[in-house]
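User: Assemble these into one structure.

Assistant: Restating your components, then the assembled model:
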Amino acid sequence: MYQLLGGMRVVEGSSFIAAPSCGLYLAQLGAEVIRFDMIGGGPDFNRWPQAPGGASLYWEGLNKGKKSIAIDLSSPEGRELAVALIAAPGEERGIFLTNFPAAGFLSHERLSKSRPDLITLRVMGHADGTPAVDYTINSAVGIPQMTGPATLGEEPVNHVLPAWDLVTGAYAAFALLAAERCRRGTGRGQEVRIPLSDVAAASLGHLGQIAETSISGADRARYGNNLFGAFGKDFLTRDGRRLMIVAITTRQWTGLVAALGIAAQIKALEAQAGLSFDRDEGTRFRFREPLNAIVAGAVAARDHDALARAFDANGVCWGPYRTLHQALAEDAAFSTANPVFAMVDHPSGHSYLTPGAAATFGGGERSPPVRAPRLGEHTDAILAEVLGLSSGQIAALHDRKVVAGAEATA
Amino acid sequence: MYQLLGGMRVVEGSSFIAAPSCGLYLAQLGAEVIRFDMIGGGPDFNRWPQAPGGASLYWEGLNKGKKSIAIDLSSPEGRELAVALIAAPGEERGIFLTNFPAAGFLSHERLSKSRPDLITLRVMGHADGTPAVDYTINSAVGIPQMTGPATLGEEPVNHVLPAWDLVTGAYAAFALLAAERCRRGTGRGQEVRIPLSDVAAASLGHLGQIAETSISGADRARYGNNLFGAFGKDFLTRDGRRLMIVAITTRQWTGLVAALGIAAQIKALEAQAGLSFDRDEGTRFRFREPLNAIVAGAVAARDHDALARAFDANGVCWGPYRTLHQALAEDAAFSTANPVFAMVDHPSGHSYLTPGAAATFGGGERSPPVRAPRLGEHTDAILAEVLGLSSGQIAALHDRKVVAGAEATA
């Protein structure tokens, strides 16, 4: 946790990954993020992975450092409370983060009647409001057809990382700060819409892939674990460890050649082909079959530890293949030796290694990440502090089951 | 292009994907982004994919809307120019975006001597400065071992999307605006460091995967194209089209059951198992084998078009599998019907569908995306406007080959 965004308040009505991760990033830089949910939890409240007791490790991972209020959003009174919360006054307030439908009581048009300078950041599936999630976006832009070994033929391979969700969440946090910066200058609020489908399409454009396919008239082939356009592939060591080795820059390539002692073989290949692999990563890609064979032979002749030492001494860009469980066991980056992480007790009852902000700010003090709230943990405090309700009014809302505290889902 | 960040100036010295994409996002919201490069281009200047003439479609995709100055960074005079550019005065200036080494003449410590309130946003591989790229990070956190069909055994599958680069780039843009917001309040600059490895590790923590693996003591298995923890998989239609179908929410699931007319089969399975699939996506995942069989049978009995109509009428979350080439041919989201896109003429000599900002800002006018500069296209203008050099001084720099214009690489 940092305090860079201290003073800013964001109200979040959201589910799944993209919008909650945006709120998480804001909270971990010091914004006050108030998440409202249905009493009993929204559609993502029990999402897998779960702890043995059934608590969602996913939910408590994506909602760290936020405050929680539980409201019956199916009741008119509950909806009014949500609107009042979103539109509450104050200079750094009036920011609504959501992935809920663009029409209805949480439409920007309606909400901005209560607060004209409201900023609404709306994460969407498709721009027209039809549903989409990471997997359905990914299949529709051609990534699964490029992923995996060519031996799979036509069989697509979905990547399991919710990459489009994560990109969208981070980009949404950026867009939200841009809109807030603009409001500081102009006083004007606005709705910002970020459909997953536009993030995916724009990203493929930014990476040159739309141009590539448009100009060539063909799709990029499936290259398995070969890094497109440069040298890079997985290789097995003599003691059976698998490494990813990449050489994008000249320095990485010459370092690899030196570390493996394959200069003579490479020179012979260069002489035969009448070119040099030093300067042009594209040439390394075109000649990947003979180059892979040379590197594979050299890697297979040595053990992991010797290779690791030689690689690091020569500035080689490489990484081990290992599972997350192995990474947790052996990599200091996944430990409290890394200031990003701390051991934190969570609502699930479990204590585990927990990340704060992925960025390290030299100008600020990093304090440990804060656990997610229990659902409704801050209901009364938010009603009192943000909406100025009296304890009698709050008690009446509980009696009418318009709101609930943490005990309701404990 | 939007003008939200108009007035802000960012100097970028960068290569590859993460840092340049951060600069791209800033430029597409109106910031002035000045990219400096070695004369002849940095290590990413010719990166694949390339146009038939050899121009990098990748470089011109990631540097849209930026200005370019070409400097001989190996000469002391060229280095001085770069430092002067980074440290140039002005209220919304003094922001440096880079992935260059943290030590040396572009260290924050040295640069901030010229401008104490400088903000340096430094994208890194590992936090200790050792090199890493998307592929070597990904192999080390266990994603390739979870990706792809279980039939592949131990063979890892790298995902081809540079997901960690893209997440890091967007998160960097967010962190940069947070640091700039903080500077506006306090007057203080700082260095912000964002290692790819920390972004990956933190993301897996946020998604609950570190908790899952820590608590269970085991890695998540390889589930092929099944969506972990919910219902989701690829299915083949009668006419041989492949669809991704997902049901995370109750509404998506009941919509799918209705659209496929499989209520009786599902009810029979529910009766047999003594549970309901409506409310709990985790139950749908646990019973994925019989559920997949029922859905596969119903999808295989119908043609794509009929299914698409039924799915859309019932709010089903689905997407086609198609290649990028097919998407460009058939999806209006990849066309100028989508305001994110415009046809743009590029330095490569090609005109193609080009994305602007993935976010749509309701409060601002969207103007078409601006092409990338030719290398050195703005050298003279930047030297004159930012550094106040006379035309005589600029000519002398050219004569001494300290700088170059666009003609040098044309």
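Residues 163-186 of chain A form the longest helix (24 residues).
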